[in-house]
Amino acid sequence: MKFILSTIIVAIVLFVLGWLFYAAIFANFFKEHYSMIQRSPEDMRLWAIAVGCLLEAFFLAWIYPKGYKGGSPFGEGFKFGLYIGLLMGVPYVFFTWAMMPVTYKALVVDGLITIFNTTVAGIVTGLIYGKIEKPAATN
Questions:
Q1: Rounded to an integer, what distance in angstroms lies between the CA atom of residue 84 and that of residue 88?
Q2: pLDDT one-digit tens code per residue, 64-85
């Protein structure tokens, strides 16, 4: 049940954070830096963004309990989200820089947003799972 709940709630968190950063707070910034490669607002595929958020949340909910070390749900979720965020955000910056005509400034901001959003998603995942009982080791 925690897996399904985490997937749904974290997908909503990711979608809202994405909207907050990309469509509200930094909308003009990204319009300036990504306009040559970005779809127009009327041509955006919001359903694909929602599916992407759902898939990211699904994989976070699936992987999180496999690496849980027994600490506080907030602390474990923070570390998990940060590690996954770094795994996603840092290579993304280099891949995008290599293939698309965008400024490094835009990529750094985009990468930091990715890391932040995934860290928050990890915290939410950790809080939903709570403390996970590990089975006792047998000899």
A1: 6
A2: 999 888 889 999 999 999 999 9
